Amino acid sequence: MMAIHKMDRKKGLDLILHTPGGGIAATESIAHYLHQMFGNNIRAIVPQICMSAGTMLACACKSIVLAKHSNLGPTDPHISNIPALGVIEEFKRAAREIKRDQSKINVWRPILSQYRPTFIGQCEDAIKWTEEFVTNELKNNMLSIDSDKERKAKEIAKMLMDKKNNKSHGRHLHLDKLKKAGLIVEQLEDDDNLQDLVLTVHHCYMHTLMNTTAIKIIENHNGVALAKTTIQ
């Protein structure tokens, strides 16, 4: 809210994102607030990496600017650093194997006993929530004028969550793959002036903060900022 205060909202928002991700609840809240302030006139700019929940926030924008070296990342949700889709797959595999061979219960018991009560349900809810959020944001903004927005939004959301093809939550998804999937992506190198400005800002932040205790900073073009540090 500090960074948005007194900004000229009629000009829209260029949102520069450099993040490893975060929680879906916070992401949903941020997207909702930005839409309240700027409507759909929000463009995401990714100078380097924008992973996980950062990718979800980028999907809430009207377009995404990526450089040749930039990337988004898979959106499959994690609960306490445990992949929700992996838990569901493992649980189903255990059920199949035990059904075929009762002796396999001795193999699976120590694994399944680590899951606390209601954890499977939490994983299922997180998966559904993530897919619904990305699908709805794409339909309501980036793909809003596309006659086939319903199908395309669902396919993009599933691609971003596809653990089987992505293999890892840390996989880097680059410009060509994202454009092919149907996201509206602009290439940073197509505008020399914009490229110079974006990378200058990015490098200034990286060089200034990389050897400090800063873990998060939100700042606007007027220098109004909120920074969070960690105690070493």
UniProtKB/TrEMBL annotation:
Gene3D superfamilies: 2-enoyl-CoA Hydratase, Chain A, domain 1. The lineage of its organism: Bacteria, Pseudomonadati, Pseudomonadota, Gammaproteobacteria, Candidatus Kentrum. GO terms for cellular component: membrane. Pfam families: SDH_protease. It comes from the Bacteria. This is Serine dehydrogenase proteinase.
